[in-house]
Amino acid sequence: MKLKLHHINLTTTKVAEMDRFYQGVMGQERETSGLPVLEKEQGYAGDVAFTTDGNIQTHLAQRDVMAGMATGQVVNPVARGHIAFRTDDLAVFKKHLEAKGVPYSDWGNRAVAGWHQIFFYDPDGNVIEVHEVEE
Amino acid sequence: MKPKLHHINLSTDKVEQMDAFYREVLGLTRCDEDIPALRMDEEVYAGDVTFLTDGDIHLHIARKDVDAGFRTGQLVNPVLEGHVAYRVEDIEGFKAHLEDQAVPYSNWGDSAVAGWHQVYFYDPEGNVIEVHERRDAPARER
User: Which letter, b or e, does each residue of A82-102 get, where b requires 16 or more Cβ atoms within 10 Å of its Cβ?
Assistant: First the structure.
């Protein structure tokens, strides 16, 4: 159940400009492997550019303040961005959150084919993602 | 000299609560290696900070300090809304690169952290980015 940081998601109205900045200024490269396969028919259809420093990915996602309304999910990860960790056992992690009294939005795999994602808030309202790659 | 992610900084008025959350809920652990030697200079930044890690990338939970920019005269305040921090081996080369790219930056030097030379700047959305070089032999030690 140990969590490892997987990506930082920055939401933006300027995906192309952000993408140029993170490649041109920050020296990141286009990520081509291990990418989420976005499901664009189920509530979020924004553009996302994927870059990496070679270890941790940066996801530059079109801001969509209505994604929560469109999906019925309380936590909208593409309103103000999020920090994403990967686990190898999301079921156990969900039980852990319940034991800690931390409510979460279970997006299942509706946004990303093959990733089961949940989102919740830290005590300051920052959005945290935890996901497991489905076999 | 590609910048590599080193830490995420979350600036907060609830350091203890955030620290407990990231340890108890996310399972991060306290770390004492490769953490900044904060000078705790009240004329710069003297907030309390806890240092956590997932084993590779660090998370800094820092006391929010709205006035740090005014107090220091720096245009970018990294402890207002937090920042994402990358490490380079050659900060002077990276500063020249930023100048080539016409990206203005706030040069904190090692005023906040002994042995780390830090610059801060904005990405096109106004997110605060830190790039620093760790210098094992700091130029001046307090």
Answer: bbbbbbeebeebbebbeeeeb
ipTM of the complex in this document: 0.88
Contact (CB, 8 A) for B68 and B45: yes
Q: Measured between alpha carbons, how far is residue A93 from residues A59, A96, B27 in Å?
A: 23, 5, 10
> Is the sign of the CA dihedral A56, A62, A67, A71 positive or negative?
negative
Q: Is B122 exposed, middle or buried (0-12, 13-18, 19+ CB in 10 A)?
A: middle
Rounded-to-integer distance, Cα B88 and Cα B46, Å: 25
* Angstrom distance (rounded) from CA B90 to CA B55: 25
Alpha helix (H) residue ranges in chain A: 15-24, 67-71, 90-100
Q: What is the pTM of this model?
A: 0.91
Q: Cα distance from A20 to chain B (closest Cα, Å)? A: 10
B50 SS3 class:
strand
Q: What is the pLDDT along chain B (142 residues), one digit of tens a residue?
A: 699 999 999 999 999 999 999 999 999 999 999 999 999 999 999 999 999 999 999 999 999 999 999 999 999 999 999 999 999 999 999 999 999 999 999 999 999 999 999 999 999 999 999 999 999 754 444 3
- Is the Cβ pair B4, A53 closer than 8 Å? yes
Non-local (6+) Cβ contacts of A41 within 8 A are none
Which of B2, B19, B25 to probe the A interface (max A CBs under 10 A)?
A: B25
Residues forming beta bridges with residue B38, ordered by sequence position: B113
